[in-house]
Amino acid sequence: MPLSLPEILETVRMTEADAFDIRTVTLGISLRGCASRDPESTRQNIYDRITQTARHHVEVAREVESLYGVAIANKRCSITPASLVADNFSPADFVALAETLDRAADAIGVDYLAGFSALVEKGTTPGDRALIEALPEALATTNRVCSSVACGSTKAGINADAVLAVAKMIKATARLTAERDSIGCAKFVAFCNAVGDNPFVAGAFHGPSEPGAAINVGISGPGVVLRAIRQLGDTADFGAVTDAIKRTAFKITRAGELIGRRVAEALSERSGQTIPFGVVDISLAPTPAERDSVGDILVAMGLEYAGAPGTTAALAMLNEAVKRGGLMAARHVGGLSGAFMPVSEDQAMIAAAEKGHLTLEKLEAMSAICSVGLDMVAIPGDTPAETIAGILFDEFAIGMVNDKTTAVRILPVHGKGVGEWADYGGLLGRAPIMPVSGLSSAVFARRGGRIPAPIRSLTN
Amino acid sequence: MPDVRALIDRIAHALGDQATPERVEHIARAVLQAERTGAPAPAPTSSAASASGPAPGDTRFVVTAYGRDTPGVLAALTSELAAHGANVLDVSQKVLQGYFTVVLFADLPADGPSLATVRDRLQARGEPLGARVLAQHEELFQAMHRP
User: Fold this and answer.
1) How far is A107 from chain B (nearest CA, A)?
2) Given the DSSP bridges, would you call strands A72-79 and A113-114 parallel, antiparallel or unpaired?
3) Structural domain spans, chain B
4) What is the distance in angstroms between the Cα of B108 and the nearest Cα belonging to chain A?
5) What is the pLDDT of residues A416-439, one digit of tens each?
6) What CA–CA distance (Å, rounded) separates A424 from A180?
7) What is the second-level CATH architecture of the domain B3-145?
């Protein structure tokens, strides 16, 4: 059946008026085989692997966005978790590796390269511990390197020693990057049930079970969903709202699938190595821009502000509808696939947090039904490390018990308190500093060991 | 229709060395057809445009232009397309309350310029006339609306 004029104009309106873009086309690169006895050789091998595999990535992505007239907001790379290929590194070696990665990212023209990471759900190796120890300095001395530590999973339980170490590391990073509102913490994510094909930075890494290289795509489009809901008016029932979101998600996922496939094909051809298309991550990801807010969708559903009673249900419905539409549209769906709610990157979330309508506790409840947890949440700089560990434990418990990914990207803004703002500019946006409970979690956080895996992990 | 002569002259001038009677007539017919049908535009746009794909190696693309209604936009676009050897398959135009939208389907030959080059030229022609011009590979629309 031929295309109709309204169909053409619908697509054009999405890109021209509703801020629809592909949020990220991320090239995952395996670093397996880069390890050497000598850390300097390992670093050189890693630099060579990244720059050779990704040297055409940005250029190809630009060509494809030009061909289809759909912007690809971010062209990024992820790598095998660094500690897996550098277990013999000292903390100083890891800082040097971060600098190497920064140079590699610069050479291939990506703004962020993610995967300076460790997977320590069940325990840590010497390399994992060295990487975590190196992180404050690594995040403070580089601009493009992003990191994550997976502290728990449904199968393994929660590594409590790692949680406390990560909480202390977050505090140290905040202190070292105090002059820029502790921006180092914006480049670090702590996970439960981390996934190896997540294309979204800062939490992206190229998982151990991934191929040598792969293209994964993160779609976006809060503005498109917002229009669909507004068009329904205030009296449409939840079935109709779900249907409208589902149809919209289907279309934007199809665009993401097409663009991801074309980038993978062109990149394979140009680089001379097979780089398959991996997955579409069907997440709604906001930016601080107008018409690009997940919080605005919740408001359009009928809530006065994000955070009002009903917010968790609205987000659950949004998340489910996006999945229903997206799942049918892509050959392989993966990554995080849900709604993001980074407070500093979403103007409706910022407004709600500023007025005190959105609290840490409400965000925690929302994270139980959406793809990530506490994301870009600014808290007072004097929050104790044990309290941050308590927040991590809570998020990870939600992830572990519900067999879903939860993540924490929290910013204890050094030298600032409630009522002040953290301002990062660009895509990271700005956030009011939110109050944290003053009750102590110190004894709990210091117990150490491992929180056992839940009964639901025994599925065999 | 007193302006047909002027239209043909403009198209012939824009085509320069590439002007053939058949090509000038084809573009002129497309322009006149679109202007005659005006608003609302015929939908579906064309059976020729989407039912059969482009020749092997050719790029089928969709040009969309919109802005305040100004004479000459369609002629400027079609003549520019012809100058690059693009074969215009179908044109739809809609004018509403002083604003227009034009949608064209065209095939770019395999040995022709890149779609990016053509889009840059179309935008350069549209801008002085107050028209925002997009040129996108047809595959995007097929993927989103014809899975």
Assistant:
1) 25
2) parallel
3) 3-145
4) 13
5) 999 999 999 888 999 999 999 999
6) 7
7) 2-Layer Sandwich (3.30)
